[in-house]
Amino acid sequence: MSRLVKRRHLILGGLGLGAAGYMGTILTGLARPCGTGRPRLATLAGPRRIARELLRQGYVGRNEATEAKSPEALATAAQQDFAAGDTVICDGWVLARSEAEFALACLRDDTA
């Protein structure tokens, strides 16, 4: 019994030291706590970069208001565009037209 108790104390003590060390790095600014930051800006950085490249290449889009789509709806639309051959080339990548329109909409939302 005493061996089991010692093992439990060792494990719990190690976990406690690890948590204290992690909090120390957060408090000193060496690390950031998980789940913080601006995920919207981070996730839209790629589409914005793509949109800037599309505009640089002269792509203007369909000139129609693009409604917000869920990730599943965008994936379905992209599959349909690829099946229909409705694609756009951007910086060596072949994009579905709906992906290109989504990228332009992200850039428009950022500049509006």
Task: Outline the structure in words.
The longest helix has 27 residues. This protein starts with a helix and ends with a helix. It has 112 residues and is mostly helical. β1 and β2 form a beta hairpin. Strands 1-2 form a two-stranded antiparallel ribbon. α2 crosses α4 and α3 packs across α4. It is elongated. It is built from four helices and two strands.
User: What is the percentage of strand-forming residues?
Assistant: 5-15%
Which secondary-structure class do the elements indicate? mainly alpha
The helix count comes to 4
Give the overall shape.
elongated
Oligomer: single chain
Overall radius of gyration: 24 Å
Low-confidence stretches: 35-42
Helix proportion: 55-70%
Q: What are the secondary-structure elements, in order, as H or E?
A: HHHEEH
Distance between the first and last residues' Cα = 68 Å
Please tally the β strands and state the result.
2
